[in-house]
């Protein structure tokens, strides 16, 4: 029986649904899960300047590629900014 870490499993599943690019802002609380992105071949990380930009990038990616947009942020006030981008994506 083989085992797989939770972080690796998460990104493998994201890759299996067709996502190839993860957008977001790295921070103290998400650095370990982000490391596992590089364990999945052909999955890449695109760092953004702030959470709102990351949300817009994930929205644009989803619209162009026809797959879910994936956004990763860290704990803090940036989450409120990211929610503005997510709400904007859902309003159209």
UniProtKB/TrEMBL annotation:
Among the GO molecular function terms of this UniProt record, one is:
pyruvate decarboxylase activity
Species source reads Glonium stellatum
- One GO cellular component term, please give it: nucleus
Family, according to the entry, reads as follows: Belongs to the TPP enzyme family.
Q: What is this protein called?
A: Thiamine pyrophosphate enzyme N-terminal TPP-binding domain-containing protein
In terms of Pfam families, this protein maps to: TPP_enzyme_N
Q: Which PANTHER family match?
A: PYRUVATE DECARBOXYLASE (PTHR43452), PYRUVATE DECARBOXYLASE ISOZYME 1-RELATED (PTHR43452:SF30)
Which cofactors, by name? thiamine diphosphate
Biological-process GO terms, alphabetical: aromatic amino acid family catabolic process to alcohol via Ehrlich pathway
Q: Which residues form the Thiamine pyrophosphate enzyme N-terminal TPP-binding domain?
A: 5-91
Which keywords does this chain's UniProt record carry?
Decarboxylase, Lyase, Magnesium, Metal-binding, Thiamine pyrophosphate
Under the heading InterPro entries, the entry gives: PDC/IPDC-like, THDP-binding, Thiamin_PyroP_enz_TPP-bd_dom
């Amino acid at each position: 029986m083989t085992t797989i870490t939770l972080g690796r499993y998460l990104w493998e599943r994201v890759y299996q649904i067709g996502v190839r690019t993860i957008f977001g802002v790295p921070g103290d609380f998400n650095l370990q899960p982000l490391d596992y992105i590089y364990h999945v071949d052909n999955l890449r990380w695109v760092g953004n300047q702030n959470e709102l930009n990351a949300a817009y990038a994930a929205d644009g990616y989803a619209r162009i590629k026809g797959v879910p947009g994936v956004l990763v942020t860290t704990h803090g006030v940036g989450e409120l900014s990211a929610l503005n981008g997510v709400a904007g994506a859902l309003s159209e």
